[in-house]
Structure prediction request, 301 residues.
Amino acid sequence: MPYLLALTSAFVYGAADFLGGLTTRRADTFSVVIVSQLAGLILLAVTVPFIPVVAVTRADIFWGVLAGFCGSTGVALLYRGLAVGTMAIVAPTTAVCAVLLPVGVSVVMGERLSTLVIAGIVLALIGIVLVGQEKWGRESSQESRTGIRDQGSGIPDPRSPIPRFPPGLGLALLSGIAIGGFYLSLARASADAGMWPLLGARGGSVVLFVAAAMLTGRTVRMPLAVTGMAIACGVVDMLANALYLAATWSGSLSVVVTLSSLYPASTVLLASLFLRERLNRVQIAGVFCALVAVVLIVSGR
Prediction:
């Protein structure tokens, strides 16, 4: 059951990131993050009193607030990266960084993984990387149309003395580290606290970004249609967080994080459906690797 929740959270996370990236292309990143985070906070504040709780400690709230700071920073960087870069590159890069940090910490702390689970995690990482290989597909399709591979003139371009990374890649790396911190922090909260740590996380993130907006003089004004998209993004993201938190209550952290980090497949598929970003053969292979990885991980547990 926890791994089904984790897998479902991956799909929902991917949908939230797609909405967030799309909204950030039409409005300021700060505005989108504040509105979406506030929408999720209101939704959670309304529902959390009806969720059974055994006990909530200060430590649970602390880890929740810390998760909020890490997660909101990661989301802001991710949304900006999705807005300025290619979704099929930014999302997988973020996911790889986000999964490596918690899995590495879990192994260092003594968690033992079966051979099938290790194979599944490795295959999942390969799948995440393959899903992001959009540039390869474009170059291959260009070559197939022209029949010519550009070998270059052999003369370095003085305007580009060093190779340039794809747009948004640096933001994706930083975002992955921050989101990995979110995964680790939220998993430290006890199951007895229910969804209260998540309320602390979302409350902390809202305070952080509202304070940052006030200090920098930014406005949260957006067109009505864009505001609706930001609200929808916040609601979907909150649902994904709730699914992930519930999965950590009884599941292995390394496995739950790996399954939850398969969200780029969802983002890429949605971008393919709604933005006409076509999947090439390598990306399709990546999605297939992700599916096989799920089977291996679940079988190994």
Summary: Residues 36 and 234 are 4 Å apart (CA to CA).
